[in-house]
Design a protein that fits this description.
Layout (H helix, E strand, L loop, with lengths): L2 H31 L1 H12 E6 L6 E2 L5 E13 L8 H10 L4 H10 L8 E4 L4 H9 L7 E11 L6 H4 L2 E2 L5 H9 L10 E2 L2 H5 L1 H4 L4 E7 L5 E8 L6 E4 L3 H20 L8 E6 L6 E7 L7 H10 L21 H10 L9 E3 L2 E4 L2 E4 L7 E3 L1 H7 L2 H11 L1 H10 L22 H8 L5 H8 L9 H12 L3 E3 L4 E5 L5 E4 L4 E4 L4 H14 L17 E7 L11 E8 L6 E7 L5 H16 L6 H5 L1
Parallel strand pairs: 2-10
Antiparallel strand pairs: 1-8, 2-3, 3-4, 3-5, 6-7, 8-9, 10-18, 11-12, 11-23, 13-16, 14-15, 17-20, 18-19, 21-22, 22-23
Helix pairs in contact: 10-20, 12-14, 12-15, 13-19, 14-17
């Protein structure tokens, strides 16, 4: 070998040795110095922690009948295998799941903090979509199909405003604060309660998720299981609601609205009713019409949002309305307690009266003649109560209104959204219009007009207080909460919030007038067919603006049996006409259901 060839050989040998040295050094760096780092990355690629969603607590009625349960359903999730999320995979999933690409990317961005965990794209996925995804597993790396509990509202739109619904959407800041007070935290992308009991009792219903450690292949599919932590189901909730009674209330309201529409009343469409136990505050039924189905809420949401009847609003507690003559027991109690009239003193009704430059009339200008306070309640005489309002004065009238809980929340805490309502007063008008109060306005306020505006729940509480002679119980919906082991963790007890003190004779006088109102000759005489004694009061409230072409609102409040009241109820039908027709008819159906009274059609219509 000549010197030139030897020199070249030595150069290439030296180059190979240098390369070999660098390769060994790199290998040593990766396997020794960076061992922990790359071992961890390899394990993350090979091993995954898949969360196991805890079943939410179920909801039952007062007789242990299921209202809300869970059923198995498919959830499609996406996991980052270390190289990010494939555009092709996202595009394919958008088609298969009937989602927008932007929607999927938004979920990925909002849940980037959990990129090593599955990001749930869609729950309750149809079987056809699941089959198509399964067939294309190799083309869709990182896509997981899981079986998870799906919320199931057994009776569809039954008690929807009480139960609420679930959604991945954000919740209001005050809700977050409330949950934090309950030591509860949730993460973006998780299904949480958005209304009703699902919202208010989210910390109890949620449960604690479990997890499973699995080995995955290159496409992210699990091929082996190593360790499992079982989830802890949420607490079950037992309500004060009675399913047959709730169904009867909803059906009666819906039928009344449909009947009005069929008769050409284009304004009808909204109604609400509340049924209470006046001896405890338990809510036996609470209905708001129109309603919605929590099972299909997300699909129906665009239509629900555009509906002018506002089906998402719980009209039993979130809306307040003029109450008309159902208010007259407040005026009667104020007059008797202030001593401006005796039980047997009579006031003459000629059908109309002119006082302070204003001419007022009875309903349809009916002349009742001379009436005492019992007869005035029975016949709902406006002229009598105009006079009582003037004698009592606006300040006293406002005071006794507040004694019944009007103008304040009555204390329901199991669901949110209860409104305070409005008590007519000099102060309210001054704050609203900066104008003085006139005596003629007191006359209106005395019969439930003017600014008087209360919720159906407040009206049910009001008639309950008349039934039990002044005791204001906190209304409640949740009777008890039971954990997954069967232990009772919360048991509700009746709570007295206030006691309106009045003379025994005052209560008896008012109650007698209400009893006679449900007998022949009274404004609610349709209830005379019942074998149960009922005390009630009708109301017909003028719509805002007092346009005579717009039907009035129909109201009715009652309790029964008179001797020992078991239920108290309020019924409101917006633009339903006179209280003695629409609202009383609804109340009749409610009472028939509660007392299991079977009437034939002729008796019910008489």
């Amino acid at each position: 070998m000549d010197k030139k060839m030897l020199k070249r050989t030595r150069f290439f040998v030296s180059l190979i040795m240098l390369i070999f040295f660098f390769l060994c050094a790199r290998l040593a760096y990766l396997q020794v110095i960076q061992y922990e780092t790359y071992w961890s990355r390899a394990e993350k690629n090979r091993l995954r922690i898949l969360p196991i969603t805890a079943p939410r607590g179920e909801i039952f009625d007062r007789n242990n009948r299921q209202i809300v349960t869970n059923r198995p359903g498919f959830t499609v999730s996406l996991v980052d295998l270390g190289d990010g999320y494939s555009d092709e995979t996202i595009a394919s999933l958008a088609v298969l799941l009937e989602m927008e690409v932007g929607e999927i990317r938004h979920k990925i961005r909002s849940q980037y903090y959990r990129r090593w965990l599955p990001i749930r794209l869609k729950t309750d996925v149809p079987m056809q979509a699941v089959a198509e995804i399964s067939e294309r597993r190799m083309e869709l790396p990182g896509v997981l199909i899981e079986v998870q509990p799906i919320r199931n509202y057994v009776y569809g739109n039954f008690a929807a405003h009480i139960l609420g619904y679930l959604s991945e959407g954000t919740v209001a800041a005050w809700v977050e604060e409330y949950w934090q007070q309950q030591n509860y935290r949730h993460h973006i992308g998780e299904l949480v309660g958005q209304a009703g009991l699902e919202l208010a009792w989210e910390p109890m219903l949620r449960g604690i998720d479990g997890g499973i450690q699995v080995e995955v292949n290159s496409t992210g599919q699990a091929i082996a299981e190593f360790e499992r932590v079982e989830p802890q189901p949420g607490h079950d909730i037992y309500l004060t609601i009675d399913i047959p009674l709730q169904l009867a209330v909803e059906r009666a309201l819906q039928e009344s609205v449909e009947r009005l529409r069929e008769e050409g009343n284009r304004y009808a469409g909204e109604a609400a009713a509340v049924v209470l136990d006046p001896q405890s505050g338990r809510i036996l039924a609470m209905a708001s019409i129109p309603s919605y189905d929590p099972n299909t809420f997300h699909r129906d949401f665009p239509e629900l949002r555009e509906d002018r009847r506002r089906p998402l609003v719980n009209k039993a507690i979130e809306e307040h309305y003029p109450v008309g003559s159902t208010f007259k027991m407040v005026t009667a109690l104020a007059a008797l307690e202030e001593g401006v009239i005796g039980r047997n003193e009579r006031v003459f009704c000629a059908g109309t009266v002119t006082r302070y430059g204003a001419t007022k009339s009875c309903f349809r200008e009916t002349a009742h003649g001379a009436l005492n306070i019992v007869e005035a309640i029975t016949k709902s005489c406006n002229i009598f109560f105009y006079e009582m309002g003037l004698r009592v004065g606006m300040d006293n009238l406002a005071h006794y209104s507040r004694e019944f809980g009007f103008g304040s929340r009555v204390g329901l805490r199991d669901i949110f959204g209860e409104k305070k309502g409005i008590v007519a007063s000099k102060e309210y008008k001054r704050d609203l219009y900066n104008e003085p109060w006139y005596p003629a306005e007191t006359m209106d306020a005395a019969i439930g007009q003017s600014f008087q505006s209360f919720t159906p729940l407040q009206m049910a509480n009001y008639v309950s207080m008349i039934a039990n002679k002044g005791i204001h119980y906190r209304p409640y919906l949740v009777e008890k909460v039971v954990d997954s082991t069967g232990e009772v963790v919360m048991l509700a007890e009746p709570e007295i919030l206030y006691h309106l003190e009045a003379q025994q004779s005052t209560w008896e006088t008012i109650q007698l007038g209400m009893v006679r109102a449900t007998l022949p000759g009274g404004t609610a005489s349709r209830l005379a067919v019942l074998p149960v004694s009922v005390a009630g009061k009708t109301g017909t409230a003028q719509a805002a603006g007092r346009d005579s072409s717009i039907p009035s609102h129909s109201l009715f409040v009652a309790y029964a049996p008179v001797e020992n009241a078991e239920i108290a109820l309020s019924v409101f039908v917006k633009h339903g006409g006179t209280g003695g027709t629409t609202a009383v008819t609804v109340a009749l159906q409610i009472l028939e259901q509660y007392f299991q009274i079977g009437l034939n059609k002729e008796e019910a219509d008489s």
